[in-house]
TrEMBL record:
GO terms for cellular component: Golgi membrane. Residues 77-130 form the Trichome birefringence-like N-terminal domain. It is found in: Golgi apparatus membrane. This is Trichome birefringence-like N-terminal domain-containing protein. InterPro entries: TBL (IPR029962), TBL_C (IPR026057), TBL_N (IPR025846). The keyword Nucleotide-binding does not apply. It comes from Paspalum notatum var. saurae.
Length: 438
């Protein structure tokens, strides 16, 4: 319980998360606290016992599915990143049952008793085209024999687990690698056996490059980031990845000391050391560029590869409250268009991804390597509009079934409930796979 009391101390020290500029930092801090919550409340995920229930869920989903998706050509023209969330009465329930699914318990909002269920009923409507949910059987058919890898921070894992859960409604995966480390879930692989032969893996690499500090061990306080050292195990497995989904960003706007060529090249938010503060944005760009250059260079002989990079999906710690107030993210509706806009810091990080992916794509063509295709999963706008999509204080099974939520509580206003809008990210990912033939 030493960790828990340290956490309480930090909790007290971070009462000033209410300032909007501090939101990213605070959401990260919330991550650490969540880890403590995780230590205290985590129990091993239930085994796959109730598949009958999952099939019932699937039938519900099939029955409510929209008309057939537009042809791939139409989709290529579609700017899905701009649009709005519309209430959809035809959605009758969750896409899948997270209870019987191998997923971090803190995002199982239905199981955890989040009282608002409205977040399940919003459908993303792109401004200029139509868009439908993925069909899990169809998805498994499309990616038969392929290895999908989700590389990055816990948002990558959030998305991977949602996908695995949804696919579990039609086929049962085996978990073949599972390192139950102190923080849990740093590298997992789910194998959908033949006839699918599909692997889905998550690689914990929140800064993509090597780092020493809380990103590797929450007990440490100072983050050291080695800008020129991409990390195993994802680099080691790169050759076998057919589809690589990179999602990393939330760990960058955090105080750190940066090294390159063995020298300190700067710091971010470290007034305690006499080194130049170089900010995190240039560092983010450098790391993304290095990652994509590496992927490009190593993909020459490896056959077709689809590399998708997600833009930042912002957290929603309401600036009216401290991060640990029970109402830090208690909204039950998406924002209206006029109510919110993408924050400057998020817009800057998004721009880095758009530009670097474009550069990587151009380089891939320039080197006559059409085998690797780069895409952006541009979720910043759609995520910005969804303050209602987070677990909030509902972080463990039946969190507050019999008692009121205390005013001061651990909150997750960063990750997404699953099922929830994170499934839309996977719907878009599927469209990219369909249109590329990867
Ligand atoms: C989208 O679907 C609606 C309703 O089915 C239809 O009226 C509209 O023309 C479609 N729009 C596009 C761009 O296909
Ligand atoms: C999936 O993982 C298993 C076990 O790690 C491995 O034997 C198999 O070759 C992998 N399949 C694909 C399609 O990558
Ligand atoms: C900080 O570093 C600079 C350059 O190395 C040095 O000139 C300066 O004296 C240092 N300041 C302090 C307070 O140590």
């Amino acid at each position: 319980m030493g960790a828990a009391s340290a956490g309480t101390q930090e909790l007290a020290d971070h009462g000033r998360c209410s300032h909007p500029r501090k939101l990213l930092g605070c959401s990260l801090f919330a991550l650490f606290t969540l880890t403590l919550v995780y230590f205290i409340f985590y129990s091993p995920p239930p085994s796959f016992i109730s598949y009958a229930d999952l099939f019932v869920q699937l039938k519900t989903h099939e029955a409510t599915k929209n008309s057939s998706p537009p042809p791939p050509q139409a989709w290529l023209q579609c700017d899905y990143s701009n649009g709005k969330w519309v209430w959809d009465d035809s959605i009758t329930g969750p896409r899948y049952d997270s209870e019987n699914c191998d997923m971090k318990s803190t995002v199982k909002c239905v199981v955890n008793g989040k009282p608002d269920k409205g977040y399940l009923h919003w459908r993303w409507q792109p401004a200029a085209c139509n868009f439908s949910a993925l069909n899990p059987a169809e998805f498994l058919r499309l990616v038969r024999g392929k290895q999908l890898a989700f590389v990055g921070d816990s948002t990558a894992r959030n998305q991977a687990e949602a996908l695995v859960c949804f696919l579990s409604t039609v086929a049962r995966p085996d978990t073949v690698h599972r390192y139950e480390e102190r923080l849990g879930r740093k590298f997992w692989r789910w194998v959908f056996p033949a006839p699918h032969s599909v692997n889905i893996s998550t690689y914990w690499s929140p800064l993509l490059v090597r780092a020493e500090g809380p990103s590797e061990d929450y007990a440490m306080t100072q983050q050291t980031v080695i800008l020129d050292a991409l990390t195993e195990p994802w680099t080691a497995d790169l050759g076998s990845m057919d589809i690589m989904m990179i999602s990393a960003g939330h760990w960058f706007p955090r105080s750190a000391m940066y090294y390159e060529d063995g020298e300190v090249v700067g710091v971010y938010s470290r007034p305690d050391v006499n080194k130049t503060d170089i900010g995190y944005l240039g560092v983010y760009r450098k790391v993304i560029r290095r990652t994509l250059e590496y992927v490009n260079a190593k993909s020459s002989s490896a056959g077709d590869k689809l590399v998708v990079v997600a833009t930042i999906a912002p957290a929603h710690f309401d600036s009216k409250y401290s991060w640990n107030h029970r109402d830090a993210c208690s909204r039950t509706k998406p924002f209206e268009e006029a109510e919110a806009e993408v924050a400057t810091t998020d817009a800057e990080m998004r721009k880095v991804i758009l530009e670097e992916v474009e550069t990587a794509a151009a380089a891939a063509v320039g080197t006559q390597r059409p085998g690797v295709r780069f895409e952006v999963l541009d979720v910043t706008k759609m995520a910005t509009m969804r303050p209602d999509g987070h677990p909030g204080p509902y972080l463990f099974a039946h969190s507050y079934d019999w008692r009121p939520v205390p005013e001061t509580v651990g909150n997750d206003c960063l990750h997404w409930c699953a099922p929830g809008l994170v499934d839309t990210f996977n719907d878009i990912l599927m469209k990219m796979i369909v249109t590329g033939g990867s």
